[in-house]
Amino acid sequence: MDMMQNRFKQGILERRRQIGLWSSLCSNIGADIVADSGFDWILLDTEHSPNELPGLLSQLQAIGRDQSAPVVRAAWNDAVLIKRLLDIGVQSLLIPYVQNAQEAQHAVASVRYPPAGMRGVSAGSRASRYGRVANYLKKADDEMCLLVQVETRAALDRLEEIALVEGVDGVFIGPSDLAASLGHLGQPQAAEVQSAIREAGARLAAVGKAAGILTVNEAEARRYLEWGYTFVAVGIDTNLLAKAADSLAQSFKKVEGSGRPDVT
Asked: DSSP character for 3?
């Protein structure tokens, strides 16, 4: 059996535009639904969502191997957490809160087998199709896509040194935490934050690294694409569900012209 090629990584290295969706529902049915929506990639979150390994595995199985490319955000830059994600078949990882080159190097080492790294060896995990992939241990490193998340003022100051760590394929700018770090908690649209995001995109382009970001605002998403961001998540499944459910409920509960709920 052949090694599964990482289409998402190829797009990152070529800096092709790839439009994604953030998934926080922790649901295999939810993942199954959005997998056919046409997004290039779907981010399964384990940092800010109550996602545990068995559920995450079922979401990966629901997305499948021929539809949207799954990307998983680890809960932390921890070699043990990362190892467990890799063993269930994750090929594209987003590591949060990377502050400097040393932390980026730690992330790289966590996704690579010795002697290049410190990933633990399992000969029969789902990643190798339970031992069916020929020479998996020699091929796996080449198909790993590592994205690191820059989300503080301190990390922005070191953006180039983080991005240029060998083995880092792309840099994701975290707008909400960056806004908090810059003194604009809950206000990623603040002028200072948007200026920093634009500058970060230009700096990453200058060193030849792909830049990614998340927003639920369509105008912002299009602006980020214009600014050179190439892997952009343009929505969150929980947000889409909440907005659609709220809108439907309110459309039936409002009395025509009164603006008050109909209690009859």
From this structure: P
